[in-house]
Q: What sequence folds into this?
């Protein structure tokens, strides 16, 4: 409640300055430096960690107690007697691969001969376990717990105050498959899965640069895996990285189930109707955003990447826009923009015209609409609302029912909406056309969360249009535009580069030819502004020689050879 | 005066559009008729003459702002004459602006119930426009200017389409006699109507939100020139279509011009859509007026934030809007206000400039 409205009001009388709250990427704004009040379990996180009991029996007792091994048979504590010592191995059976443990851990341990001239140290044991590449030394009980719950196998030698955590994770997740919501005709057909390591693999196989950083940030208290913050060092603005890291680190919850949940913790305006970040299940799309200077967040267990900063326009872009020729992509984008306007405004404008201003319509059309509405006892807005709700029922039902009977829902819906309601005189055929076009136009938008946001905006406008006609639509339009103009995605104005007005990069509404988009979008303020050299078609005879001279293409070794 | 910490900076183009919209609100009311009535067929010259008269005033504003690194006029007055004068001037400007916005809301309400919503009570329109204005102004001028900029294409395209569609139906000889009631009378009317641009006083209060003096200057001159052109164009088209005796009797001239368009195509009548587009300008203008009055209060009282003042001032503006007993009374009072408000609005910056030039020396100059 530090910056509450009341405090602002009281500050009028006390002349206290109101502390700055907003984060901005603008170079004129300094780095946000306010300290974050620590949450409840930050204290518990800092609890002093106890050391590892050296005695085998003590350790096993503590582990068995902590993991409730009697009630929890999935947790295994195994004792191993070898010629050189007593070994304790602890792991979750469900998370590890028992064959690997047998072959790459127990085998080498049994064959191991400790050095005779000095006491055994962790390094000696690590050198013996050559088949496992992820080996961590563990010195505290908390670290032991953490390594076991994240799927590592814990190894302890009786009498020593250290242990080893080894990675023998089993592959139980689903394999990489096609995307479900961001399908494309042209382009790659792989999508993220629930396993964060596979997701990183999908990204790293595409982005071959050591600057691609996947930073680990601790997730929820009871979370198995970390949050991975992805960015390209030297390209992404450090201010953006600092800010997203600051927001991620300030999260202190039991569990994060999905990036959609995570988004609400870190976005600028969580109470807005509109999502200020993009969730994508496509590695290629995620990389294209990273290459534009954005950051992405991966969460273990979530098959989506959370991307920011983004603009509204990038939510209207489809992943395959970059795979098509520029006129086709441009046309598709314009079509989507028309779709956006249609899905938001068509029912409201139709209601305003029919109810308040029928004189706007040509006489023949006006008479046709009037005759169609003649037998309908309900107001136009009610008819549209009825259709909207019926449409939503069908959509929800189609999502829930088993796939085998999915088409049945469509048929039933079509019969109910298309035929029965007209014959029953509940709605007019024109209202059905309006509702159908509105629904179709909505689904032309690639970002699913945006479709849902627009649906609520549409109902709000319909309500206003029903009572105030075009004046109501005007109020709705101004409110919507004002709200969108005030949104920010990680400090970037949501309607950039149109508001505030800057030079578009050539990839906003109109997608120009790929070779002509030289710069990255300015709004992410990337450290490296150019994504390609200015002249990528020097062999083209239409390129003026002056340009070749400027860019140095005439002085290439081949040209020099020709000149000499 | 230090602006509220949540305020951003104003972009040049956004500020230009915002100020232009604030000035052109009157265009959609009865003001074209008043111009016709006052200057006859030469009414299209009036905005140009008024523009020439306002330019020196704005030069004073610009010089004063430059001298004090774009501090607001009320802060400067506090520096020159003390905090009590600053407080008084803040209160004075607030009262004037609230009255101005209140009358604008009333005439806007009359306009809406005359054109779009004949069966709706005027109170619904007035109160909804006030609430909308508070909502728009609450997030600060940066956000409001961006909203204005995003709605500008809609407003300007509809305006130009309507003007050109109607303009080609007109008769050029309706513009004669070219000098209306005579050259001197026209100039005199132009000076009397300098209040067409009185909203430029907004710049004196929002000067701290500009990053550069050059942008401040460009926005001021640009918006004055642009709005003068819009007024002139409207008056020309009005007289092309309505002979002088008719032009001075039209209720809402721009709306009546819109009614002359008959497309007989996909959309038969355009005027509801035009009113829709023009009303966006008016709502933005009302929001700017509310913001400006809250800002005057804030700067006058040296408060850190303008937001707590917004709602009470909007409530006062609604009260003012209900004062006139009839639309005729509201229209006449608004016209009268347009004539007298320039006296304080232009007088204060000019007087400040004179004072600064004659009496004020800063510490470096004294050395």
A:
């Amino acid at each position: 409640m530090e910056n509450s409205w009341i405090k602002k009001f009281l500050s009028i009388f006390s002349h206290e300055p109101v502390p700055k709250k907003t984060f901005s990427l603008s170079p004129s704004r300094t780095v946000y430096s306010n300290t974050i009040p620590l949450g409840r379990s930050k204290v518990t996180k800092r609890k002093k960690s106890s050391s590892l009991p050296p005695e085998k029996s003590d350790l096993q007792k503590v582990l068995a107690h902590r993991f409730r091994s009697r009630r929890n048979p999935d947790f295994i504590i195994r004792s191993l007697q070898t010629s050189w010592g007593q070994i304790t191995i602890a792991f979750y059976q469900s998370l590890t691969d028992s064959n690997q443990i047998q072959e790459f851990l127990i085998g080498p341990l049994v064959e191991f001969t400790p050095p005779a001239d000095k006491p055994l140290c962790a390094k000696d044991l690590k050198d013996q376990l050559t088949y496992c590449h992820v080996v961590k030394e563990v010195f505290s009980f908390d670290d032991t717990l953490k390594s076991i719950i994240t799927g590592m196998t814990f190894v302890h030698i009786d009498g020593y105050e250290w242990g080893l955590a080894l990675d023998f994770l089993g592959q139980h997740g689903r394999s990489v498959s096609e995307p479900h919501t961001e399908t494309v005709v042209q382009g790659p057909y792989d999508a993220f899965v629930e396993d964060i390591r596979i997701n990183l693999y999908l990204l790293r196989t595409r982005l071959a640069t050591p600057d691609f950083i996947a930073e680990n940030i601790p997730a929820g208290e009871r979370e198995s895996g970390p949050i991975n913050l992805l960015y390209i060092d030297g390209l992404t603005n450090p201010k953006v990285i600092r800010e997203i890291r600051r927001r991620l680190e300030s999260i202190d919850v039991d569990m994060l189930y999905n990036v959609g949940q995570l988004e609400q913790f870190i976005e600028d305006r969580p109470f807005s109707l509109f999502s200020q970040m993009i969730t994508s299940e496509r590695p290629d799309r995620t990389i294209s955003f990273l290459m534009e200077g954005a950051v992405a967040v991966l969460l273990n267990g979530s098959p989506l990447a959370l991307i920011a900063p983004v603009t509204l326009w990038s939510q209207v872009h489809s992943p395959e826009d970059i795979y098509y020729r520029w006129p086709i992509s441009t046309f598709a984008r314009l079509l989507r923009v028309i779709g956006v306007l249609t899905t938001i405004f068509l029912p409201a404008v139709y209601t305003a015209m029919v109810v308040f201003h029928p004189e706007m319509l040509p006489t023949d059309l006006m008479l046709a609409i009037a005759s169609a509405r003649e037998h309908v006892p309900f107001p136009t807005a009610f008819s549209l609302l009825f259709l909207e709700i019926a449409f939503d029922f069908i959509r929800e039902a189609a999502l829930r029912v088993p796939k085998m009977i999915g088409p049945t829902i469509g048929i039933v819906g079509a019969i109910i909406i298309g035929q029965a309601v007209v014959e029953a005189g509940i709605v007019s055929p024109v209202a059905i056309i309006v509702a159908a076009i509105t629904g179709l136009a909505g689904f032309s938008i690639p970002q699913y969360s945006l479709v849902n946001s627009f649906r609520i905006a549409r109902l709000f406008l319909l309500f206003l249009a029903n009572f105030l006609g075009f004046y109501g639509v005007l109020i709705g339009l101004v409110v919507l535009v004002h709200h969108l103009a005030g949104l920010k995605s990680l400090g970037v104005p949501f309607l950039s580069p149109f508001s505030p007005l800057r030079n578009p990069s050539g990839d906003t509404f109109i997608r120009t030819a790929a070779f002509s988009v030289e710069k990255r979008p300015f709004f992410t303020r990337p450290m490296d502004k150019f994504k390609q050299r200015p002249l990528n078609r020097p062999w083209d005879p239409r390129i003026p020689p002056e340009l070749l001279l400027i860019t140095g293409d005439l002085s290439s070794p081949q040209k020099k050879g020709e000149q000499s | 005066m230090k602006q509220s910490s949540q305020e951003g900076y104003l972009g040049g183009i956004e500020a230009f559009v915002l100020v232009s919209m604030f000035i052109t609100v009157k265009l959609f009311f009865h003001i074209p008729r008043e111009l016709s009535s006052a200057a006859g067929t030469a009414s299209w010259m009036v905005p140009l003459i008024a523009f020439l008269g306002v330019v020196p005033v704005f030069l004073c504003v610009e010089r004063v702002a430059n001298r004090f690194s774009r501090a607001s006029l009320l802060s400067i007055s506090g520096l020159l004459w003390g905090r009590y004068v600053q407080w008084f001037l803040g209160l004075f400007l607030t009262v004037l602006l609230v009255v101005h916005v209140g009358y604008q809301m009333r005439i806007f309400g009359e306009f809406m119930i005359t054109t779009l919503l004949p069966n709706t009570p005027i109170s619904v329109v007035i109160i909804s426009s006030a609430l909308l204005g508070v909502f728009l102004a609450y997030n600060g001028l940066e956000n409001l200017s961006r909203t204005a900029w995003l709605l500008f294409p809609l407003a300007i395209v509809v305006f130009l389409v309507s003007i050109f569609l109607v303009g080609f139906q007109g008769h050029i000889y309706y513009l004669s006699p070219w000098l209306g009631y005579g050259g001197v009378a026209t100039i005199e009317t132009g000076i009397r109507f300098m209040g067409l641009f009185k909203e430029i006083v907004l710049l004196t209060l929002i000067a701290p939100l500009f990053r550069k003096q050059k942008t401040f200057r460009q926005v001021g001159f640009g918006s004055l020139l642009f709005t003068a052109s819009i007024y002139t164009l409207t008056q020309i088209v009005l007289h092309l279509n309505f002979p002088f005796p008719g032009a001075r009797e039209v209720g809402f001239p721009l709306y009546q011009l819109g009614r002359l368009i008959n497309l007989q195509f996909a959309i038969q009548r355009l005027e509801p859509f035009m009113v829709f587009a023009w009303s966006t300008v008016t709502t933005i203008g009302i929001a700017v007026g509310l913001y400006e009055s809250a800002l005057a209060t804030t700067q006058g009282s040296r408060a850190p934030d303008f937001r707590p003042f917004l709602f009470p001032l909007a409530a006062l503006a609604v009260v003012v809007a209900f004062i006139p007993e009839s639309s005729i009374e509201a229209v006449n009072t608004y016209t009268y206000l347009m004539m007298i408000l320039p006296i304080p609005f232009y007088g204060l910056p000019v007087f400040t400039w004179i004072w600064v030039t004659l009496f004020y020396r800063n510490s470096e100059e004294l050395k």
